Structures are given as structure tokens and as C-alpha cells.
Amino acid sequence: MIYFVTSNKGKHAEARAIFADLVQKDIGYTEIQADTLEEVAAYGIKEVAARLDGPVMIEDAGLFVEALQGFPGVYSAYVQRTIGNAGILRLMEGMERRDAYFKSVVAYVEPGREPIMFNGEVHGQIGFEERGHKGFGYDPIFYVGESSLGEKEIEEKNRISHRAASMRALKRWLEGRR
Ligand code: ITT
């Protein structure tokens, strides 16, 4: 059993398809203002480790748009809550360069141990319109191939996603230890 501290149901659903023995804990943690997802995760994992007794995982993710110099990046949650997908599309009006990537950093710790972190990325394009109602957050505007992540089933998203990559790396590490 692993506790997964997150408020995001979509993340939990994706993680559950990789780790069957996951227990979601929606208890929140401090997301510090920092320049990298790694710094946010490193701080957060220490905080949740102090509050839960058992193996704990958190995951911090962000959308990095190349033509916007990596924005919204570490501010992805705030930007999603405020201007949202429509706001990103508006910011990118007239831009031909649409390359973007999602990055995921997963942090994991067991009682009395040092935390470890793994990351993953998926590269794609910001589309010109929102498509699909699957997934969450920026999925409807993030395209890989012909379709957006919002049009992909969890299994399909998990074959290519940043989160699936970081979490599978953690899973391989855990299995390699046995
Ligand atoms: P936590 O409680 O786990 O922190 P959160 O939704 O705040 O949940 P993050 O800070 O990691 O998660 O996410 C930053 C933002 O990026 C947030 O608005 C997410 O909706 C969005 N995001 C993260 N992963 C995504 C994905 O796979 N597809 C689309 N949007 C994603």
C-alpha cells in the first residue's frame, strides 16, 4: 500500500492504473514558489512524510510551452484556475510554433528513509481548439499526434504520458529492490 497525496481525481485515476495498491489522501501540502517542479516536490514530500505513517507519494506536474519560454510551468495550477485553456489559446493566437511538453516529478518516501524522485515528459503541440472531455486540466488543448489528450482513454494516455513515465520509473525502482 502506498499513500498518494493529491487533490486531483484525474491524477489518482491515472496512477491507480499503474499502482493497484494506491490510497488517495486529499490532505493537501505546501506547494512552495520555486523555479522547478523538483524543488516543489522535494519540499512537499518531507511535509507529507511527517504527517502520514507509511510509504507516501506525491506528484507535481506542469505544462511548458516553448514559444512562451516554458510558461505556465511551475505556475500551471494557478494558470489553469485563472485563465484556463481558453486563456492559453488566446495567448497563443497567431503563433505558429506550438510545441509544448508536460513534465511530471514524482517523489516517494518511506518512514525513516530519504525521499527519492523520478521524472517523465511527454512532448506534443498546443492545438488551436479544445477537443475531448476525457482527462483533466490542459488535456483538451494538448495534442499528441492527431488527437488531444482529452480525446484519449486513460490506457492510451498512460502509454505516452509524463505521469505514466515518472510513475513507472518509481515502480521499476521499487520492484528492483525486492
Ligand atoms: P495536486 O493536489 O496533486 O497538487 P494539482 O491539480 O494541483 O493536484 P499539479 O500542481 O501537479 O496538480 O498540476 C499543475 C496543473 O497542471 C494543474 O492545473 C493540472 O490540472 C495540470 N496538469 C497536471 N497534469 C496534467 C495532465 O496530465 N493533463 C492535463 N493537465 C495536467
Write the layout of secondary structure elements.
Blueprint: E1 2-5, H1 9-16, E2 22-25, H2 37-51, E3 56-65, H3 76-82, H4 84-91, E4 99-109, E5 116-126, E6 142-144, E7 147-148, H5 154-160, H6 162-177
Parallel strand pairs: 1-2, 1-3
Antiparallel strand pairs: 3-4, 4-5, 5-6, 6-7
Bound molecules: inosine 5'-triphosphate (ITT).
Keywords:
single chain, 178 residues, alpha/beta, Maf protein, 34% helix, 25% strand, binds inosine 5'-triphosphate
Characterize this entry briefly.
With 178 residues, this protein is α/β, with parallel strands linked by helices. The protein has helices at 9-16, 37-51, 76-82, 84-91, 154-160, 162-177; strands at 2-5, 22-25, 56-65, 99-109, 116-126, 142-144, 147-148.
**Strand content bin:** 25-35%
Cα radius of gyration in angstroms:
16 Å
Low-confidence stretches: none
Largest sheet composition: 7 strands, mixed
| Number of DSSP strand runs | 7
**CATH class label:** Alpha Beta
Number of helices: 6
List SSEs in N-to-C order.
EHEHEHHEEEEHH
Q: Total domains, how many?
A: 1
What would you call the shape?
globular
| Bound heterogens, unique | inosine 5'-triphosphate
